[in-house]
Write a structure and sequence with these properties.
single chain; 20% strand; alpha/beta; 8-stranded mixed sheet; 7 helices; two-stranded antiparallel ribbon
C-alpha cells in the first residue's frame, strides 16, 4: 500500500523580513514516524485554495495547534485582548477545509487550536482567557520553561465508555495523562460534536462528530510532542494513520470497481 498523503495546516507568521507558512516540526515528525503518513503542509491561502482539488489528492487532514486563536467573529463574539493573537489567513483556510473534509469522509485529526477550529466550523464557540480561570491543577504550564517542561504530562482525563477515544486508548493500562498548553477551551458545542473525554473540572479534552462518514477526532492536548515516547500520545497518531490507510484502501477499491 502506498504511503497515505496527509494535508497539514499552517500558520501564517511574520519572521523578519518574510511571511512564512509554517508548521512546528513535532507534528511533521509524529505524522512520519508514528502515523506512518506523508505530511504535506498546506499554505494558509484562504479561498485561493480549491478545497475539493486538495481533498481529491489527500488521504487525511491534520489540524495543528498554534499560539493564535480563532477570531471570535466566527462564533458571534466581540474581540477582546483575551482573544488574541489571531491568524485570519489560517481561519479562512481551515474552517471551510474542516467542513468539506468531514462531508467527504476524509480522516481528520484536530489538535489544540484544531479542536477549537473543528468546534467553530460546526457552529460552536470558544471561551477566552481559559488559563486565567482554570480550576484544577495541571491546566497551567510554565510559559518560560523548556519545551519538555511546557509539554509535560500534567493531568488525567476521564474518557467516556465505548467512545472512539476509549477505543484508541484500549491498550492503556494506566490512567491517560495529557499536557495542557491551551489558553482557550470549547464552550457551546457545534452541531453533532460529541464530547468523549474531559478534565476533572469539566474542560472538554476530546471530541468526535456524530454521524460523520469518516474518522474525526479532536483533542485539546498535544499528543504530537510525546508521540514517540508516550504510548497514549502515540496511540492517537497511530489511529489517525490507520484511518488514512483505510481511506486509501477504500479509494483504491472504489477505483477498481469503477473500471
Amino acid at each position: 500500500m502506498s504511503q497515505p498523503l496527509v494535508a497539514v495546516t499552517a500558520d501564517l507568521k511574520h519572521v523578519d523580513p518574510y511571511d512564512w507558512h509554517a508548521t512546528p516540526a513535532p507534528y511533521i515528525d509524529a505524522a512520519l514516524d508514528v502515523a506512518g503518513v506523508l505530511p504535506i503542509i498546506v499554505p494558509s491561502a484562504g479561498d485561493k485554495i480549491d478545497i475539493n482539488v486538495l481533498l481529491d489528492r489527500v488521504d487525511g487532514v491534520l489540524l495543528t495547534g498554534s499560539r493564535s486563536n480563532v477570531h471570535p467573529s466566527h462564533y458571534g463574539a466581540e474581540s477582546t485582548a483575551d482573544h488574541e493573537p489571531f491568524d485570519p489567513a489560517r481561519d479562512a483556510t481551515t474552517l471551510p477545509l474542516i467542513r468539506r473534509a468531514i462531508e467527504r469522509g476524509i480522516p481528520l485529526l484536530a489538535i489544540c487550536r484544531g479542536i477549537q477550529e473543528l468546534n467553530v466550523a460546526l457552529g460552536g464557540s470558544i471561551t477566552a482567557a481559559f488559563q486565567k480561570n482554570r480550576s484544577i491543577e495541571g491546566h497551567d504550564y510554565p510559559w518560560n520553561g523548556t519545551l519538555d517542561e511546557r509539554f509535560a504530562l500534567a493531568h488525567e482525563i476521564d474518557i467516556a465508555d465505548e467512545s472512539r477515544i476509549a477505543e484508541i486508548m484500549r491498550d492503556q493500562s494506566d490512567a491517560v495523562q495529557v499536557n495542557s498548553l491551551h489558553t482557550q477551551a470549547l464552550d457551546k458545542l457545534g452541531a453533532n460534536i460529541v464530547v468523549e473525554a474531559t478534565a476533572r473540572d469539566g474542560t472538554v479534552e476530546a471530541v468526535t462528530v456524530a454521524n460523520a462518514p469518516g474518522f474525526v477526532v479532536g483533542v485539546q492536548w498535544h499528543p504530537e510532542y510525546w508521540a514517540k515516547s508516550d504510548s497514549a500520545s502515540g496511540a492517537v497518531f497511530s489511529a489517525f494513520g490507520d484511518a488514512a490507510r483505510s481511506y486509501v484502501s477504500g479509494r483504491s477499491g472504489a477505483a477498481i470497481a469503477a473500471e
